[in-house]
Inverse folding.
């Protein structure tokens, strides 16, 4: 793994992920770990983290891991994101961990679990990604 926390060809997680406050702690083609805060800017009208935020974190971490695994052979794009919500969160630091379920020639599937500081699972998502190979 290089000193860069990003896959080949990626310079950043992107402005949206930066706005969400995603802080990468571990990045590889086998595992991605990040922390983020259940800040009020991420709340829906009832004062809990919006489900779309959980989906966005899931997609971001899965994409980073998949891109690391594919490397310089090409790029990846998400083609399906399915996220379940188990416990509403209003505040605190959350940790999300992405791990591969399947890594094949044309597609990858990654699972992402998000937990509170106490270890309570608040959401779990799965992203299917298409491998797009660079032209030779």
């Amino acid at each position: 793994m290089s000193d860069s926390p990003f896959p080949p060809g990626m310079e950043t997680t992107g402005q949206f992920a930066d706005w969400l406050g995603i802080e990468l702690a571990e990045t590889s083609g086998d595992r991605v770990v990040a922390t983020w805060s259940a800040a009020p800017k991420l709340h829906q009208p009832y004062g809990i983290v919006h489900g779309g935020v959980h989906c966005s974190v899931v997609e971001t971490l899965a994409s980073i891991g998949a891109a690391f695994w594919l490397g310089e052979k090409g790029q990846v794009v998400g083609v399906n994101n399915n996220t379940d919500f188990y416990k509403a969160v209003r505040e605190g630091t959350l940790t999300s961990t992405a791990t591969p379920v399947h890594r094949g020639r044309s597609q990858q599937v990654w699972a992402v679990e998000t937990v509170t500081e106490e270890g309570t699972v608040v959401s779990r998502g799965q992203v299917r990604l298409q491998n797009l190979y660079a032209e030779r």
